[in-house]
Amino acid sequence: MSSASPSASSEPPAAPAMPGEAAAIHRRRWTVLGVLMLSLLVVVLDNSILNVAMKTLARPAPVGLGATQSELEWAINAYTLVFAGLLFTAGLLGDRLGRKKVLLAGLLVFGAGSVLAAFSAGPGELIFYRALMGLGAAFVMPATLAILMNVFPREEQPKAIGIWAGGVGLAIAIGPITGGLLLDHFWWGSVFLVNAPVVLVALVAILALVPDSRDPAPGRLDPLGVLLSVAGLVLLVYGIIEGGQLADFTDPKVLATAGGGVLVLALFLLHERRSSHPALDVRYFRKPAFSAAVAAIALVFFALMGAMFFGVFYIQSVRGFSPLEAGLLLLPLAAAQMIFSPRAAKAVNRFGAKAVCTVGMLLVAVGMFAFTTLDETTPLWRLEVIYFLMGGAMAFIMPPATVSIMQSMPTEKAGSGSAVNNTFRQVGGALGVAVLGSLLSTRYRDGVDGALSAVPRLPGEARHEAGESIEATLALADRLGPAGQALVHPAKAAFVDAMHTTVLASGSVALLGALVVAVWLPGKPAADAAGEDETGGEEEKAGVGTKR
C-alpha cells in the first residue's frame, strides 16, 4: 500500500478507540505539550551548552580534555552528522511503530549518551558519545511534533506549534547560561550530566501523560528508500562539515562526499517517484504551501546559525565576556521568540502566511545587516536590540512555516512531515555554519596575516595555526607574554572586519528567503474562506497548508 497522496491532507486524524479516552486526551492536551517541550528542551539545550564549554575542553586534563581545534569541531559535528542523517528514518519509524515508543527510546539513548559523555576519558570517547546522543536526539525531535499534531485539533495546531517553536528559542538561549553556571562551579562533564535528571523526569511524564499514535495503515516497507535517504544525508552533511573545516569547498574530498550525497538524494527522489509504496510521497513538494515553507526554514536557519556561530566569538573573544555573561546577552533572542511565537498564529489569521513570513525574513536580513554597525567598543544595548529583532523575526517565520508543512500532510504521516521539517532545518543550519564560518575564517586570516608576519622568529607552521581563528591568535599572544600584546588589537579588528563581510552574505541569504516566500507561499485565502462559510465545505477550514 502506498503512502497517502497529498490530496489526503484534509483527512481528519484517526479517532481513538474509546470516546472517553479521546475526551481525556483533549482535556490534558496542554499538559502533554509541556511534556513534549521538556523533551525538546533537553535535546536543543545540550548543543548550546556545549558551545560555551569549548575553551574548557581545550585545556589540559584534569581541567579539560586537551582537545585540539579539530577534535572540538568533531565533538559538535558528530552529533550533527548522526542527527541529520537519521531524522527522516526516525520519523518514518515513529509513524509505523508508534511515536510515544520512539520518543521514549530516543530519550533513553540520549540520556545514556549524556552520562557516558560526562565521564569521557579523552576527546575520542567524547566524539563517540556525542554521536550516540545525536542518535537519540534524531528520534526525539520528530516525535514531539508528530505527537503534537495528533493531540491538538486542527484549529489549535498553529498556536501549539508557536509555543513549541518558542520552546526551541528558549532552549537555545538558556543553554549558554546553564553551561556558564555549571562551568563556574563544577567540572566540564557537568554540562552533559545535567541532562540525566531532565531525561528521567521527561520519561516518567511521557509514560503517565502522553498518548501513543501511529499510522493506522503504514503500508509496505521501503528499505531501499530508507537506505538511500540515510546515505545521502550523511554524505551531504559530512561534505558540508569538511568544507567548513578546510575553508575550501572545492577540495576533492569535499566535492566527492557532498556531491555524492546530492547524487544519492537525487536517486532517492527518483526511487520514491517510481515506488508503489514510497517512504516519502514526493508529490507533496508540488504544493507551494509545502515546498516554499521547507525552503524558508532551510534558508532562515542558514542565516541564523551562521550568525550564532560568529556572535559567540564576538561576545567572548572580541568583547571579553565570560561564557555565563555571553549566555545572558543572548536572552533577548529567546525572550522575543517566547513572546511572539505563540502570537504568530493570530498574525497569520489576519494577514496570511505569505505576508507574515516575508516580513519575518526581511527583518532577519535587517538584523544581519545591523551587525555591520558593531565594533570593539559598540554599546551593548545595540547588540541586544539586534538579538531581540532577530528573535522576533524568527518567531514569525518558524511557526507558520512549520504549520504549512505539517498541515500539508495527512495527520497519520505526521512523523514523516516533522522529519522533513527538521531535516531541512538541520541541513540549512549546518550549511550556514560551514559556509559562513569558512568565509569568516578566510577573511580573518587575510586580515591578521600582516600582524602575524611581523612577529619575530615565528615559524611558518605556527603562524599558519595562529591565523586559523581569533582564539588561536589570542592564545599565541598569551604564550608570547608582553611581546604578544601587539597582536590583540589587530586580531580583534580583523575579526570585526571578517564579521562584517560574513553578515552581508548572511543577510543576502535571508533576502533570498524573503523572495522565495513572497513568490511561492500561498497568501491569505480570504475570498475562499468567505465562500467556505457559506457552503459549509470542509476543505478551507483545514488552514494555511490545505490543498485548495
Structure description:
The protein is mainly alpha-helical. The protein folds into 3 domains: 206 residues, MFS general substrate transporter like domains (Growth Hormone, Chain: A); 56 residues; 226 residues, Growth Hormone, Chain: A. It is built from 23 helices and no strands. α6 packs antiparallel against α19, α10 runs antiparallel to α11 and α14 packs parallel to α17. The protein is globular. The N terminus and C terminus are likely disordered. Its main location: membrane. InterPro entries: EmrB-like, MFS, MFS_dom, MFS_trans_sf. It is found in: Cell membrane. It comes from Streptomyces oryzae. It is a multi-pass membrane protein.
Overview in brief:
It is built from 23 helices and no strands. It is mainly α. Residues 1-18 and 527-548 have low confidence and may be disordered.
